[in-house]
Amino acid sequence: MCGIIGYIGTKNAIPILINGLKRLEYRGYDSAGIAFLQVNGFSVSRCAGKIRELERSIRGEKLRAKIGIGHTRWATHGRPSEENAHPHRSGGIVVVHNGIIENFYELKDDLKTKGHVFSSETDTEVICHLICDYEKKGLSFRDATRAALGHLEGAYAIGVINESEPDRILAVKNDSPLVIGLGKKEFFIASDIPAFLKYTRDVIFPENGEMAEITTEGVSISNFRKNRKVTRKATRITWSPTMAEKGGYKHFMLKEIYEQPRAIADTIRGRFSLEKAGVNLDEFGLKESLLKRVSKIFLVACGTSWHSALIGKYMIEDMARIPCEVDIASEFRYRQPLIPRGSLVIVITQSGETADTLAAQREARKLGARVLSICNVVGSTSSREAHGVFYTHSGPEIGVASTKAFTTQLTALYLFSIAMAKAKGKLKDKEITELFSELLQLPEKVETALKIDGAVKKIAKKYCKVRDFLYLGRGINYPIALEGALKLKEISYIHAEGYPAGEMKHGPIALIDNDMPVLTLAPNDNVYEKILSNMEEVKSRGGKLIAVAVEGNRKAASHSSETLLMPETNYYLTPIIFSIPLHLLAYHMAVLKKCNVDQPRNLAKSVTVE
Ligand code: M6R
Q1: CATH code: domain of residue 66
Q2: pLDDT tens-digit readout, 244-301
Q3: Which distant-in-sequence residues (6+ apart) come within 8 Å of 595 by Cβ?
Q4: Measured by CB atoms within 10 angstroms of the end CB, which terminus of the chain is less buried, N or C?
Q5: 595 counts as catalytic
Q6: Is the CB of residue 408 below 6 angstroms from any atom belonging to ligand 1?
Q7: Catalytic residue list contains 605
């Protein structure tokens, strides 16, 4: 997730900008840059890599400025490079941006026909060109920016400075974070409070659709759509710098769990058209003609991403009726897989750097398959070596336990399955729009699902001393049982197993006694009655049952000691909603056991060795 910083005041802006960027490093980034005003105009310094590279590039120069903006970039459009790093510039307009401009392709084409020359692959660059275009038509800086904003679709927080009005910063918020710091004759803008906490604790949080005009005299906020002034009260921050980095959450894992509504919204942003009942395939390097020719799909991944792959099989086979094979990457690479002509291999990887997944990906290419990577990190090895990439855009995941990356992978697979089904003529446009409509409601439903947190914490208190835990699911939610078990063992070190519930009688039922907690996933699907019977089997042997079911389900409650009721969604999206209480349960159990939640023992975030 990109980070923005901006300063206007009486001190030297440059060390403030650099310090601010360092405080935003926790958000993850792959390049950085600053722009500041000197006597002869704005200077822009940018580089791929770490902030220390940026510092190195300006070291030794006697730089002083009273106004400037800076940025750490987490690539979304275009690889991490100096040209794609922010700030971007057109004429005297310099911009930093966090978010995604959905309609930037159309805007870019339009601006090119007007003679604008682009120097990056980013969506951001259209913003400075648009403002510049309006300024040339005689509009003031503020009005030109307002007019430009009228064209933008998507999520954005923007900082803009202008050579011809060098006494002000414009800062805009629409669905991406932005906070303004209030000092004495000095002001800050940032994506997050730690960026300027060293200088002030007094802040204003602009709301969506608002623009702040900031000079050394003060801050004036207006609704940029209605062009009407608004008043926002200042708030005093009492958090410590570390608390502030985690947004007030105790751990990155919890923060990332709570980020899911936003992360899912970013994954689906601009990815499909309700009117055309279609997925926008261009961005993924896939053509419908290619999808039409696909006769077999292999899904390959490790760990939590492998659980996504298992769920992806249910989605693709059910919607598109194409046979899918799922492999753990470390098995695929050595098993000499038979890859018939017309095969598509989908590798799923948050980091894009997992050694086994990369080896499997290379093996698949060697065997002649086309490869699609579902990946979170732009410019990662997997994304570079694949024929096509579906970026999940969930923002950096810092906690070792994968949470938001998992649910956004499932969201990506849902969209891919629809695209595949459409190409194969297996879904009618009406059915596709229904699937899209449900997807549009998903971020809100996830928000509602997160309200289960308090109830989950109580369950965690009751069970945090157990030695073993069993998770049961069936059908598309069987991999969620595996995911619940993996999360619990990974961060709380409690031994846990996930099973397809129908398999109980074939062995695991022997484990059930009065000490064994069994969490069962019981959505209202085609195997609901079956799972109730499986719950009976556990109950009659004294096992302690925790059921995850859908709102309004009284039957599941009568079968179990604890019931967690979740919002209803369609069959394919249930795993996303049902993973939430399981991730929360693992989190609370680990906290209660005083484990290192974000960095569990023996584990690394990115497993780059075999
Ligand atoms: O970056 P990747 O998605 O390729 O990582 C795969 C696994 O290492 C990862 O999902 C791991 O299982 C997580 N720690 C699970 O929470």
Answers
A1: 3.60.20.10
A2: 778 789 999 999 999 999 999 999 998 999 999 999 987 787 888 999 999 999 999 9
A3: 491, 492, 493
A4: C
A5: no
A6: no
A7: yes
